[in-house]
Amino acid sequence: MHKKKYNFKGGIDYSSLKKEQSNETVKNFLSFPKKFIIFIKHSLLQKNQLRVRINQKVLRGQPLSFGSETIVPVHSPASGYIKNISFFSFSENKSNEYIKIVIISDGEDKWIKLHPIKNYKKHTPEKLIRIIHKSGIIGLGGGKFPSSQKLKLSINKVHTLVINAVESEPFVTSDDCLFNNYLNEILVGCKIISWISKIKLVLIVVQENKTEIISKISSLIHNQLLFKLCLISNKYPGGSSKILIKALTDKEIPYKKHAIDIGFLVFNVATVYSIKRAVFNGEPLTERIVTFLGDKNFFHGNFWVKIGTPISYFLMHFKIQAYSDINIYLGGMLMGNKVFDLNNSTLQGQNCIFITSNKLINKKYTEYACIRCGFCSKACPINLLPQQLYWYIQSKEHDQTNKHHILDCIECKVCEQLCPSNIPLVKYFKYEKKIQHNINIENNRRNLSLVRFEKKQKRLFFNKKIFSKDDLFLKSNPILRINDFNSKKIEKTLNSFEIEENKKNKRKEIIQQAINRMKLKNK
Amino acid sequence: MNVLHIYNVYSTRQIMFLVVIACIPGICSKCYFFGCGTLIQVLSFIALSFLSETILVKVRAKSFSKNVKDNSGIVTALLLGVSVPPLIPWWMIVIGVFFSIVVAKHLYGGLGQNIFNPAMIGYAVLLISFPLHMSNWIEKNDNFLRFKDIQNAVNIIFTKNTNINNTVNVQFFPDCVTQATPLNHFKNQTHLNYDNVIQNTINSNQQEIIKVSWICINISFLIGGLFLIYKKVICWRIPFSILLTLCLCSSINYFFLKNISSSPLVHLFSGGTMICAFFIATDPVTTACTNIGRIIFGILVGFLVYFIRNYSDYPDSIAFAVLFSNMITPLIDYYIRYSGYGHKRI
To answer: How is chain B split into domains, by residue range?
Structure first.
């Protein structure tokens, strides 16, 4: 058995705060919610096409949409009928448009006809990938990248599979719970993935404080050469794939490239589990484990939640009716976004719902001036200088922010947590990133127009050259002389083109002569 | 949306307060050797700085709670009060506060925006304009009782005319003409070869007492600095590199020219080396932000302290060394920066 502790630079140690919740079994909701709301992202470049109409009856697991290879279909979470289909955009982010589908359940949980595959080794990997694509599996850790696409890219490129069971955020234990209850199924899922992309080593990465799981896994793995257990230090943010690979192998993923390009395939545990379900049992992705975090007054624990259940249902079910006192975040304590609309539903990428009373959040934190203490740059896991970036953002020097690699920032909010002056640094960085994006677009446009201008000048010169054969005409015409200032340069380039063409022609002639000679010899 | 602060180690107020706590042993030992004048001076500096800050914040129309309550004014006033000799007159205190807090801090745009260390600007202004008062380190007279000492100090600071030539002061403190710091003594030795003259004026007994007092003061500041490093308020790289470079340069010099130069131990434990290394040079606003940059900054300060002490007219050279290297910090920050994730390392 292999036990080595891996560590990474920076981060925050939350071990004093974290409580163990892994002993708890997963809870099922007793009653079905009556209404499901599903949001499908809609954009002009990637078109989702709908498969259902209003007032149509649907069964559980029936696909609602289909698209090209890059888009995975979304399935209905329960049996019932479709009430309404409309366009929708949230009030906090109006740039993204969604298709909103409302399903009303009939209470019976009827599945569509399933096609389970018991022996996956009889089928080709391409067919298995197609099945995974059809069952609508995307990265459940929050990446939302379609996993069929990932598997297709990884064939003949990847040598190790990394299974990510690291929840760095405090109090979140959904992956932990999944490992505890469905260990055998996850190991089968690993074998399926390793068969698809021909992998001979599987690394299972777990945090070092989860002792129960470590002993369980190590007893199961004991004789198998395929698996290997790795322990990572209990720090935030260890869950990001970039940091995970650096901690394990001390290699960095190059700029604008993925982990596949170095030879690592990273999957979250929940994705592996759902892949196993899709292949072995034929079930498409309709539910996932979500952790609820609340105060002493509210509920907390791990639950199986169907994708598309609106948040208002949870509040109704646990009899929390004073909505004005409560703040709700989708995601963990640190990375989460505040919810303003109670019709917002749990989607595939969310592993946590966090509910607090207003009193905790409305504590007053006075924002002092930055004293450049350097705590933030010590803690930054990807080697940035947040304080320096903050100064450049305030003085609007966009060149310098680009030179200090602001686009690398993974928005983990570590720097904010340690800042003694309570400055919301990540807010500034998000704002600056948008500006950088706009600058990039404008630069591209400028380059394109420059290229067009040069091409146009070449064309104009060709036209002129036809005239220039007639010398008398050129000298007499005053308009054409205006363009003469550039003529020397363009003539040079044109001459070079002609020379190249002549060379090509000569080469062709030589090759043809050689071919003719060979033919003669053969005769 | 305001994020929940679960893991705030220190707030800015706490950092400043810890620095004030770390200064306490140094102040106590200074009071023991030079009389209670230092304590009165520090308190008056703090009161004046608070007053001037409130006025300036009102003039600049900024919020009181954000700019004054962060305790940073207290720290600058305290460091200025510690580094200045005891029993300087009240109008010099006013000038020092004006230049350190009004000019160096608030006219540059408040905390965090200043290029130079505010306490050192005040000290440098006083040192250049009133050199006689600023080199007036007086030994405590054992004839006075404690209460009388306080009364006497208040009298000298606030009421009486304290020209050096005045006979009243000389009567109380016969030592003041000779300027009894070991560094001054060393300076006279090196530049003028005044060995005989000095030996006549100061008894060898008194000289030893002075040396011991300076060593004690420096050690007490070192204890405070180690406390700050233990609490992880300041970075250990700056004081370590300053002390190492000073020790190295002076030991090389001592090895080759034993007659003229003083030993490295004298350099380390005299004047304001320890205050400079642990309290003044580590001011986070005016130092470089990367780890390598901090080491370069420390080496620069240590070398300059050695250089100015040996080859210039000023006996103690903290202020000029720190101010000069503050000038260079933007340059260091521009050229030394971290590479992000996934780029090639520089």
So the answer is: 35-179, 205-345
